[in-house]
Amino acid sequence: MNLSYFIAARYFRSKKKRNFITILSRISMVGVAIGTMALVIVLSVFNGLEDLVRGLYASFDAELKIEAVQGKSFLYDEDFISKITNTEGVEVVTEVIEDNALFKYKDYQHLARLKGVSENYLDQGRFEEGYVWGNLELGTDSQPKAIIGRGVGFYLSIDIENEFELLQVFYPKAPRNAGTLDPRQLYARNVIKPAAFFSIEKEFDDNYIIAPIGFVRDLLSYGQKLTSIEIKVHEGYRISTVKNNLKTVLGQDFSVKDTDEQHAGLLRTIKIEKLFVFITLSFILAVASFNIFFSLSMMAIEKKKDTAVLIAMGAKTDLIKKIYMKQGAIIAFSGAIIGLVLGYLVCLVQSTFGIVSLGISSSVIDSYPVKMIWTDFLWTSIAVITITFVASYRPAVIASKVKSTDL
């Protein structure tokens, strides 16, 4: 057995003296364990929240979205759509026209996002996450129906059971005669029947109304133009592979975004928050390691005679340093292993039973989501090792300066 480790382990397990130094070492170990456990749990919660956001957004957004690089719309024809449809890995192609519009229901008005979609929109597995009230349908060309965000429905006090009241939609247009006094020349108007409500995420709930693309095209006078094309990928194909195939087919005039890129700002914010939480909790671990520093410093003083005996017997300075460095490592690693195991068990229990509730009755999920990733355990271990080395180095240097004449 390695001599320095053997001596360090004997110091750690010594039961002859339950003095203040031994108690402080145990407290250091507990502090590292609690800090490590907290770091694992918090990072796992952030992973769970990131996955939750991805899941909710994926329920509304397309797996891939094609947009023009310049301008908010682009011209299309059947050849263009066929070129996309025939791309390997593409299963469903949905045409989209989207713009802001004013909605009126009875005496209530609200400005929201009108999204016109082709008939196969619901074939892309939309609204699988969240809640839906009413009949999830877009109607026909003669009787179009709208799927309305719950927030929009609340603002307008829409009653989907009312067969007689229709939702009015207004869209501004450039008047043919700039000097006209007729306000009807300033906007286009049409009506549509509310069919269902959806609730996925507040951003969508408060801002979106889904309608048939024919209805929206006529209202907005878009003709042969689209604002985007949404793609569902064939099962068994990688989204990244299909994305690259589409980029090759469409060229540089169009961008192809996956779900993460469609909400890159939000996901980047979550990752930055996770990074700062990791740094903050690492500082807490560093504070806990001060106990390791003090306990090793006091142990170096207490074991001064033992150290002098070792030096008199021929022990080198490096051996003395290694004893105290490994003593600090034993304290920290014991705490870290306990913390990692406890953090894993807490996350496992939370993901299985959902013990800690969000406390929001209308939330899509009832409890805090957690997801454990092995890299979080790796980086936590690296942080503990680094902090332990820094905390143990100075006491080890002090102990190595003892001379045999100190006996």
Automatic annotation (TrEMBL):
Keyword Cytoplasm (UniProt): no
Coiled coil start-end: none
Entries under Pfam families matching the protein: FtsX, MacB_PCD
Localization annotation: Cell membrane
Domain ABC3 transporter permease C-terminal: 279-401
Major localization class: membrane
Keyword Membrane belongs to the record: yes
Transmembrane segments: 20-46, 275-296, 329-353, 373-393
InterPro entries registered for this protein in UniProt: ABC3_permease_C, Lipoprotein-release_system, MacB_PCD
Membrane topology: Multi-pass membrane protein
Domain MacB-like periplasmic core, chain residue ranges per copy: 27-152
Family to which this protein belongs: Belongs to the ABC-4 integral membrane protein family. LolC/E subfamily.
Name assigned to this protein: ABC transporter permease
Organism, as annotated: Belliella calami
